[in-house]
Amino acid sequence: MFVPFYDFGTLFLVFNAFFEWLQFKFMFHLKTQIMKKVFLGLLVIASFAACKSTETKPTETVEASSEKVEHLYKPTYTDNFKIGDQTNVLLAEQFHKLIFEKDFKAVAEMMSDTATYNVEDGTTLKGKAAIMEFVEKSLGAVSITNYKIAAIMPVVGENGHQWVDIWDEGDVVMPDGKTQKYQWMDAFRFEGGKIVHFVGFGKAVK
């Protein structure tokens, strides 16, 4: 069939437009794939940088906490405390648990024979026998419930003494059945798995 000249021109325009459309689709697809790869690469780099930043933070904190300071009042006992033996934390918690259970024989076994106890009223008790007499008399007639530890921390100073500091609270049930909430601040020094010195302060919460 004979095709007029102007029909060939029309066909040329149609085919040219079609090829331009195909070229546009190809370039759009190619750019889309490239952008996806670039975005993925940036995401991986950002994730790696975040991980490296997280890893270095604990080191920075430790270094800052180990710096020595010039005191306004020079400590007379020891200085420059660091985190101590974590096993002593469990010993201090076990000591409290035995007191609550009124297992005073086991409580005594956790103390050295020459232990010292600084009582909150200013009294100093020396020796296991004197301490246990006080403990059984003051705690034997009451019960402690709803016991909670706010914070517990093992520390060691320049003199090598291992302490465990505790901030805790609980409800003290009196012999008459009345209940009073108390808060305590205690410090226990350990040697060879035994309590050799402890200090106790407490107050009734109003």
Outline of this structure?
The protein has 206 residues and is an alpha+beta fold. Helix content is 45%, strand content 31%.
Describe the protein.
The chain is α+β, with helices and mostly antiparallel strands and 206 residues long. The chain contains four helices and seven strands, in the order H-E-H-H-E-E-H-E-E-E-E. The chain has two domains: 8-45; 82-204, Roll (Nuclear Transport Factor 2, Chain: A), CATH 3.10.450. Helices cover 45% and strands 31% of the residues. A hairpin with a 5-residue loop joins strand 2 and strand 3 (124-126). The radius of gyration is 37 Å and the shape is globular. Mean pLDDT is 81; it is low at 1-6 and 59-64.
Helix/strand layout:
Blueprint: H1 5-65, E1 82-83, H2 87-100, H3 104-109, E2 111-118, E3 124-126, H4 128-139, E4 143-156, E5 162-173, E6 179-191, E7 194-204
Parallel strand pairs: 2-7
Antiparallel strand pairs: 1-4, 2-3, 4-5, 5-6, 6-7
